[in-house]
Design brief:
This protein is mostly helical. It has one domain (about 5-140). Helices cover about 50% and strands about 10% of the residues. It has helices at about 10-15, 15-25, 25-30, 60-70, 85-90, 100-115, 120-125, 130-140, and strands at about 5, 35-40, 45, 50, 55, 75. The strands form three sheets. The protein has a two-stranded parallel ribbon. A two-stranded antiparallel ribbon has the order 2-5. The longest helix is centred in the C-terminal third of the chain and has 14 residues, at about 100-115. The model has no long low-confidence stretch (mean pLDDT about 95).
Length: about 140
């Protein structure tokens, strides 16, 4: 389910600490994980025939995706043209505590939705520490 953009902030800000808990419970697992997926495919089946390379994501990544859609914190907005989000996500030193939780959810939305068009983007966001930074900042603001 996607949250409509017009009332996403109200919905997200109404979540209780308990509703966030399932996402927060992933943080220790994320901290303990080194690789969040691996490249599969590309094998030769017979002369001139190969399987298509693809990413196989770790179950933790799949669980994260499931949770963010089920809560829901995935927002229906034009994430592809959201330049501010691209700047935030691309800045390794960005202080995520300076933005509100709905904006953090917009970042999660952009990352998760982008993965549909750029396979491996979500895995990359986990491996770079971006997802963990966002989750830690959400925890700081709800707790």
């Amino acid at each position: 389910m996607l949250l409509p953009e017009e009332d996403h902030a109200e919905t997200i800000n109404s979540f209780s600490e308990l509703q966030w808990q399932q996402l927060m419970d992933l943080m220790p697992l994320i901290e303990q994980t080194q690789k969040f997926g691996k490249m599969g495919g590309g094998e030769k089946i017979k002369e001139g025939v190969f399987t298509i390379p693809h990413w196989n994501e770790d179950g933790l990544v799949s669980k994260f995706r499931e949770i963010v859609y089920d809560m829901p914190i995935i927002i229906n907005f034009d994430w592809g043209h959201w330049d501010e989000g691209r700047e935030i996500a691309g800045n390794e030193n960005f202080d995520y505590d300076t933005i509100d939780i709905p904006t953090k959810c917009k970042l999660i939305t952009a990352i998760v939705r982008n993965d549909r068009f750029c396979e491996g983007a979500l895995i990359s966001a986990f491996e770079s520490g971006l997802i963990l930074k966002i989750l830690k900042s959400i925890k700081n603001q709800i707790g």
